[in-house]
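Marked as duplicate of an earlier ticket. Keeping the data here for the record.
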Amino acid sequence: MTRRRAVLAGTLGATTLGVLGRAVPATAAAPRPGPLVLVGGGLSDDNAAIYQTIVDLAGGDRARIGVLTAASVPPSQDPDAGTPDASNSAANGAYYSDLLRSYGAGQVTWIPVDLDTIANADDPALATQIDTMTGFFFGGGDQYRYVTCLLHGDAHTDSLVMAAIRRRHQAGAVVAGSSAGAEIQQGTDMVTGGESYNALRDGCQPGYFDDPDVSGYLPAGGFGLLSSGLIDTHFSAYGRLGRALQLARTTLHRRVYGLDPDTALLVHSPGTAYETGRVVGVNGVSILDLRNTTARWSYLTDGAAYHPHAWRAVLPRQLKILRPVRGLPVPSSDDVFADWAATDLARQLASCTAPTAVGYTRQTDPQFEVALSKLPGFCAYTDDSINAASFVDLAVTIRRR
């Protein structure tokens, strides 16, 4: 299926959704945490659906948004600093600030904390400034730099800046992030690197490693604003299905949110009994359910809702149940963790009447087989009557050949 790239019109309101999808108004006596907007990376400048959602949730023309880019290299490590080709914390802070203003944010301020200015994270004046903000945007890069800059080392305690952000979020401020800026919002066992094949072959190792082939994770995790599952970004685009499943099995987590590029999971009331997610954007969000021996994979696209306490997805009305007519078997993939390969294989299976599909790693020493099969509750949904856009309940089994 051709992936949709059109910018989706309309935005989601700030109404909190309850576990069963009903509107549940927050009360002054029982304030709920602000929403999270978790983007899988690759956020296009013209993705109005996501940027406008962030700005609207922060208050529109009354918004006061803080931009954090500590996951980027600092200017001292950027050979292009001070030029139009610069890609460092200061340059990226200006870039995101300008973008958010272009979508109507009333006031946007870069928070000057990075590897060059770690001491700023404990500046009382900066923390006081943050206490007036209605939203925050965390840019991409390396999520471990956020740990280094905003938390206190092995103690993993909040700096003054992070404590202020946490207070504002608990009082209702929106927290958004893309790529590393989304990863850092999760709780324990945050992924720090690695690829699917290496994770399956060698296992997942606690710690942070310079070697990109080592599948690492930080047991203390990130900021802990989302605790209902692990987060992995660039999910389909970088073939991270194997990495995510291996990490979840290693750390005994029962759920993974796999976020695709240019796509967000909007989470209302995170960490409460009313937590509800909704997909916004042009690709999808994978939900991996590991409550049982067999992993269950659901893939949700724009407008789909997810209720973590009920383990239930609700598909939008514009999607119809797909009645496949093609009975041909799905061709196997010979590089199942290549970019988009696993997700494309799953959607091909969802679009036909075949019960199973199989993919293999291109590496053969050893080689791994990824088998997908339709569970009794499987259902596919379409926006064009031919191809699957979303699906629920594919079984995923990975074995060494």
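See parent ticket for discussion. The longest strand covers residues 368-382.
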